[in-house]
Design brief:
This protein has 177 residues and is of the alpha+beta class. Helix content is 21%, strand content 27%. The mean pLDDT is 91. Bound molecules: zinc ion.
């Protein structure tokens, strides 16, 4: 999971800001949607960010570092030489929101405003159906082959599978010149 630390609300010059915004940072007066639009960029994000499903945005108050809002990451765009998150703001009832928002940040000590941590919410299960959790990609190594061979075996031999596939796979529509 990605954790971004934002400052208290502060003005920006919209003519100098790469996303044309007049302010950034956290204020309790602003909605989560506004906070998202004004803080989704511009960050220095490495390749690991592309693997992350969620981002928490935190800011400090006298009691410590508090998670203010959270998003599900859908994409990351380049803005100048930095990057900005594109995502959906999470609401109450979402497991990531309910676990983290308005609570102390899980990475309160980090000085770097961009940090990553392993969270159970990031874990997926192997797509083959074996139930093994995976943190990267869709399969436990080798299970993609297993999933294919299982399906071939359900049809029969490889030849039978190919015949079945060629009979049943719809030809893509072709455009007449
Ligand atoms: Zn598997």
């Amino acid at each position: 999971m990605l954790q971004l630390t934002i400052r208290p609300i502060h003005p920006r010059n919209p003519e100098e800001d790469d996303l044309g915004r007049p302010w950034g940072g956290y204020s309790a007066e602003k909605s989560h949607d506004e906070l998202y639009r004004h803080n989704r960029g511009c960050w220095v994000l490495g390749a690991r960010a592309d693997q992350e499903k969620y981002a928490l945005f935190s800011s400090d108050d006298p009691s410590g570092r508090i998670v203010r809002f959270a998003i599900a990451i859908e994409d990351i765009e380049s803005v100048g030489n930095r990057r900005a998150l594109i995502g959906t703001v999470l609401h109450q009832g979402h497991p990531v929101y309910d676990k983290y928002v308005d609570k102390p940040s899980p990475v309160s000590k980090a000085r770097n405003p961009v940090t990553y941590f392993d969270a159970p919410e990031d874990r997926r299960h192997c797509v083959c159906g074996c139930g093994t959790p995976v943190t990267r990609g869709y399969f436990v190594p080798g299970h993609d082959q297993r999933a294919i061979h299982d399906r071939v075996a359900r049809v029969g031999s490889v030849v039978e599978f190919l015949n079945w596939f060629d009979t049943h796979y719809p030809e893509p529509a072709t455009t007449q010149a």
